[in-house]
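Folded chain entry —
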Amino acid sequence: MNSLTYFDYAATTPLRPEAMDAMIQALRHFGNPSSRYAYGREAAQSIKAHRETIARALGCTAGEIFFTSCGTEGDNWAIRKGVELGRRRGKHIITTAVEHAAVLETCRDLERQGYEVTCLSPDRSGRIRTEQLRAALRPDTVLVSMMLVNNETGVILPVADCVRAVKAFDPAIVFHCDAVQGFLKLPDSPASTGADLITVSGHKVGGPKGVGALYIKKGTRLAPLLTGGGQEEGLRSGTEATAQIAGFAAACLSTMADNSRLERTQAIKNYTLERLKEAVPHLEILSAGDAPHICAVTLPGYPSEVLVRVLGDQGVCISSGSACHKGKPSHVFAAMGLPKAWLSGALRLSFSPDSTREEADRLVEALRQASQSIFPTMS
């Protein structure tokens, strides 16, 4: 990381030292948590403690946390099995056009199986209104899936208000929230939204890749996505990833202990946006972001993928949207109805509490120089 100027923390975060230490310790203890002898029981006890830590970070009880391999698995599990809870009532799903691909592609797959999906469109600022959801509810609606923080704009969606609206309409409708970008990045815990199912991921908060969790609200009778040996109370089979879980919990613990992290992140984002507006001609702000760690800007007409590569060659890491797009145009920015020239130059910047003004200045200077050397097209 010393040679990089990194502003892509929404894609992934560096492994916290505490997480690495916890993982090394867990790797040395290779016992299978399902084994009944003492060595296995010690591993199981460690997982129990880690589950309690992550539950505290999420704002729920340990019995409502079930470990997964990633956010994508959690989203798939929540949606595919969530709709089954209402199979006798209907096949209508509501989501938003700005969700992560793990949600949208799962919903599209269910469409091919006979479900009907309503996608709520954002306004030009990327916002979804509770009234839109309320108007889309139907007697045959069985599931709503809405993210907490958009991973490309930083906009906070009105999940808590929408949960209340859904439950007032029909308490049996399952509400899923992809909180991968909101977990430990907002003042309030994800569970405080009241959602039935909540997805989180380890590598977005300084933990390792390969581990996540699904919150299943007490009383929600969700069926397993993966069957087998009956781990995780029979709801998620597969030998527990003890090292990844240990690293995830340690990252949560150290993050929670940093009481000024949100303020520092917001401050460096504000500084960066101010410097960019001053130093880079024609730059426009697509979204300042409600969450402290994400914003989106554009250089209209400048190819964003070229900008990303040019800056990357100088060790400055930003993105043109979600890492899962792999260079494809952002469906989030497209859904906002932006002009074509604005879409072509869209860039996402994401920050950490440890981002510095010196790094921000390097980013600003690199983007300023790139804008002078790259030929824009306004067609």
The first helix runs from residue 17 to 28.
